[in-house]
What we know:
By secondary structure, the chain is of the alpha+beta class. It has one domain: CATH 3.30.1330.60. Helix content is about 45%, strand content about 20%. It has helices spanning about 5-20, 40-60, 85-90, 110-115; strands spanning about 25-35, 70, 95-100. Strands 2-1-3 form a 3-stranded mixed beta sheet. Helix 1 packs antiparallel against helix 4. The longest helix is centred in the middle third of the chain and has 21 residues, at about 40-60. The chain is elongated, with a radius of gyration of 15 Å. The relative contact order is 0.22.
Amino acid sequence: MLLIEWIYKAILDARAVPIMRDNSGIKARINGHTDSVCADRDNQLLSLRQVEAARGYPISQDIADTNLSIAGYGESNPIDSNETKAGRANNRHVGFVIRQSKSVHACGPQALAASIFD
Length: 118
């Protein structure tokens, strides 16, 4: 079982969870990414396990499961080179993407995402 590190829980508790709890119209997709060290299939499965773990935490904090979808991309969308240790580390990440916000149109998804992760 994959666990969310305490630092990420602190960020979620401080930003994402209160915003999503206070604005029930927010829909988010949790994306998982890996480096290219293992086989494609293994990386795909790993990214899905990562996002399933990440999705469980907001749900445990009373965020509706219907407001959180998941996508595991494996190694298919790198943000950095897989040729270096630092690049591979950058490619291993999970991100929250605001998909829909009925009750927060005034600030828009970009401003909302910035307020969660700044």
